[in-house]
Structure formats: C-alpha cells, structure tokens
Fold this protein.
Amino acid sequence: MEPVLNEQSRRRWAATEAKALGRGGVSCVVRVTGLARRTIYRGLDDIRCRHKTDPGRVRKRGGGRKPKIARDPTILRDLKALVEPATRGDPMKSLLWTSRSLRKLSKELVSRGHEVSHTVVGELLQQAGYSLQANRKTREGNQHVDRDAQFQYINGRAAFFLKDGQPVVSVDTKKKELVGNFKNSGRE
C-alpha cells in the first residue's frame, strides 16, 4: 500500500487501523509500520476533527519545509563567495561551472555556521545557473593558471555573440574537430 499512499492518506490509514485495534492500537501500528507515534496521533486528530485540505493538495497551503534560502538568507551569498574564485565557463555554451566539489563546499559552509548538506549545495548551485557536470581536465587545484583565463575569455565572447543572436563555433585543437553552437541564432 505504501507506494500508492501519500503522507496524508498514510497517516489516516494508520490512524484508522490503530483505532480499530482499540487499546494499545497506536503502539501496535507504530511497531508494524515504522511510522512515528506522533504521525498516527495526528491522523487520529485529522479523523476526529474532520480536517480537510484543498482538492489536489496533501498539506494545507504554506505547509511543509521552507526552502533553505528562506530559512538561511546569507547562505547563497556565502556559497557564491566560495565558488567565485573557482568558477569556470564552458567555451561551447554560456554556462557556468565550478571545479569545487559539493562535499568540500558544504563542509566550508558548515564551518561558517550554516546547516547544509552537499545535496542542498548542488540545488543552490543549479538555481544560481551553475552546471553540475564534471570536467576531468579541471580537477580542483590541478589546472594551469592560464587555462582558466582562456576559458573565461572564450565564455565572455560566446555570451556576447549569443546575446546578439550570432552563431558561436568553438574548435578544440587537441581533438581537431569542429563543434558548432547555434543556440539562439535562429540559423542552421
């Protein structure tokens, strides 16, 4: 049943089972289902008070966990400060990425007083326009200084031409292949 029940229906189903069992029913349902005792009591309260939610909703409006940025407004600023020195640009697209690992970034944010996991750091970077793809040529701390300057220059030029609706072509001389990016140009 678990895959077809949402949190509200699971809570209410467990509460009706506990109620049907009578005395000791809540403890029995807790043992069997692994649900928290508080969840079952909340289901009993839902049934007793006939709580209703809007159609198509599981929770009342405004319910649920608030986004990390709403709970910790300085986290994005601190994350950008950590990522900016290691920000890279993809010469093929107007795209940002960083050579810093999510786990290292989350540890540094924790040391600055934020409660954050590496998965939340990844979500915040995606919201800020960063790609979470790794490039094996740029492992943290192992790249040549001029390489980043080259990519930044190419990315700046690509962004300029793409903004103007012009096609962008980048050639990787090591692979000796031509790759075109006609994004936003309208021409093939």
